[in-house]
UniProtKB/TrEMBL annotation:
SUPFAM superfamilies: Methionine synthase activation domain-like. Coiled coil: none annotated. Keywords: Methyltransferase, Transferase. It comes from Mediterranea massiliensis. This is 5-methyltetrahydrofolate--homocysteine methyltransferase. InterPro entries: Met_Synthase/Corrinoid, VitB12-dep_Met_synth_activ_dom, VitB12-dep_Met_synth_activ_sf.
């Protein structure tokens, strides 16, 4: 299913912590986004910082003001496009079986100090041996539009648009996932959480994105492309599986109440060989994709 959002639809779902992080600000400065915007509120917010941080807080305030102006300028210029598919699914060991696609995954191997289990995303999907089909969502989101007119040759404005576009892609995904949980998949039809709780991921289930710690192999984007046809929303993949435009995100949606995020971490040569076999790719190519996870 394809969903299209404009900036007014999407901006309320922006996680400003990550926007400010991209500009080198600590999370406490992102609280400027929580204000109503009146002069007295801004003055009280500035006064809440120690003297040593006042200049930095003032910079954050100005950056947020300029970001809001840029969002207004980009309204009607940028659109957020989201694709998702709800697949008939089962787990088969460390693989997911998604409709007619086998989607290999990685399992933690590094010993845990607390003896907790070694997790794989497939643990949160019904096993094939159960004889009962489960569901897994597959998604991709991107930002479309020509923003050059809003920034011209100004490097600062170009960076501002880039960091805003990254956040808009994630925000559109947040809104899409809300629709999936309540309506399209409907496993949480009565969910009624404020946006602040959504951004803290208080909802049921998880949405691991490609390239993140529990789904570190960027090349699985080729499998997602087979399931979604990413060209429908203007995404193309490089030979390494990176998405273009850069302001794009893809991944899985899992509904199990116990599902949680984790880091695969370092894997051994044994799992690397097994994973390469399951992916049907040469070992040397898998080493390239998983370089950050190799011991």
């Amino acid at each position: 299913m394809l969903l299209t959002y404009n900036i007014a639809d999407t901006a309320p779902y922006i996680n400003w912590i990550y926007f400010f992080h991209a500009w080198g600000f600590q999370p406490r400065f992102a609280t400027i986004a929580n204000l109503h915007g009146c002069d007295s509120c801004r003055a009280l917010w500035l006064a809440s910082f120690p003297q040593a941080d006042c200049n930095k807080a003032a910079e954050a305030m100005q950056l947020f003001k300029e970001a809001q102006r840029m969002l207004a300028r980009l309204e009607g210029v940028l659109q957020m496009k989201c694709l998702f598919r709800l697949c008939r699914a089962n787990a088969d060991g460390d693989n997911l079986l998604l409709d007619d696609i086998t989607f290999p995954l990685l399992r933690q191997q590094t010993p845990h100090a607390d003896d907790s289990p070694y997790l794989c995303l497939s643990d949160f999907v019904r096993p094939r041996s159960s004889g009962i089909a489960d569901t897994v969502g597959v998604f991709a989101s991107t930002v479309q539009g020509e923003a050059e007119a809003a920034c011209g040759d100004d490097p600062y404005r170009q960076l501002l648009v880039q960091t805003l576009a990254d956040r808009l892609a994630e925000a559109a995904t947040e809104r899409m996932h809300l629709y999936v949980r309540r309506t399209a998949w409907g496993y949480a039809p009565d969910e009624d959480l404020p946006i602040s709780a959504l951004l803290q991921e208080k909802f049921q289930g998880i949405r691991p994105a490609v390239g993140y710690p529990s789904l570190p192999d960027q090349s699985v984007n080729f499998l997602i492309d087979r399931l979604l046809d990413l060209s429908r929303i203007g995404i193309r993949l490089t030979e390494n599986g990176a998405m273009h435009p850069h302001a794009s995100v893809s991944g899985l949606m899992l509904a199990h109440p116990a599902a949680r995020y984790f880091a695969v971490g370092c894997i051994g040569h044994d799992q690397l060989e097994d994973y390469a076999r399951r992916r049907g790719l040469p070992l040397e190519e898998m080493k390239k994709f998983l370089a950050a996870n190799l011991q």
